[in-house]
């Protein structure tokens, strides 16, 4: 009886080995067949005239070998889609992230991360409003995967906090309708300098800057504009010094519209000199002889082209490019522009 059982056991073992060998051979043959079909399909679908070299052909054994050549390269229990003990992934504890504590089964959204006693704590709130705090680190789950919660990195704002004039920057959601009050300047260079330093402030207030192309016809411009206490006008004039033509014009228009027009000026012959000379590499602006155009003489002293109007425009662009903030302007100019802005924006929120 024992002999028969041993014989039957050997027979079953041999049959099992044979079946295993048969499965391996069939699988090997089918794998080779699939590999050869893949090679032939690659060659068949290639454009006519394509030249193949040995390294261009697909590796047959790469197709057959399902597990790779190094079984120790990675741990399938920790890495891959079917890992049952996967590695923890570092995830910032951003506000609103749904996290599970598997040890207690508590599931909640991140409310905040704070530091207490030298340890970072993450506070979670579940759908019923219950809150719990845990030490930040590993041992959490997100979407069924283990994670290690880390301190979220605060994003720094790229928007400037202050304007070029030194005021606190205000973000406008939409363009503001222009206010009825205006600021007039003598020329385009004056307008460009005011825009570069005070442009952000003026857009918030809704104040438009216009240039006069000279102060000689200021009274005519104001006559057309029609200043009123609710429709004010501020005027910035070059070289406003006592007993000058500019001062006589200023006194005339302010006496005619005493509560609606304010004319102020700086002592410089031209707005160019309102820029600190150090910004263009000078210790002081050059003294230009009487009878010589101030712009031409300045560009000649700087060694820049000055023959044509285009040269003068390019020279001013070079000077204006050196202006970054209000710190690059002379105080005698800064105070006058700020005074005009205050004058035309009084009661601006009520209008």
Brief rundown of the structure:
This protein has 351 residues and is of the alpha/beta class.
Task: Please provide a written account of the structure.
This protein has 351 residues and is α/β, with parallel strands linked by helices. Among the domains are: 2-64; 89-150, SH3 type barrels (Roll); 182-275 and 323-344, Rossmann fold, CATH 3.40.50. 35% of the residues lie in helices and 17% in strands. It has eight helices and eleven strands. It has helices at residues 2-45, 60-64, 188-205, 218-225, 245-256, 294-302, 309-321, 331-344; strands at residues 89-92, 98-101, 106-116, 119-125, 131-135, 140-142, 145-150, 182-185, 208-211, 233-237, 261-265. It has a four-stranded antiparallel beta sheet, with no helix packed on it. A four-stranded parallel beta sheet has the order 9-8-10-11, with helices on both faces. Strand 4 (119-125) and strand 5 form a beta hairpin. The longest helix has 44 residues, at 2-45. The protein is elongated, with a radius of gyration of 41 Å. The N and C termini lie far apart (116 Å). Residues 2-13, 15-36 and 60-64 have low confidence and may be disordered.
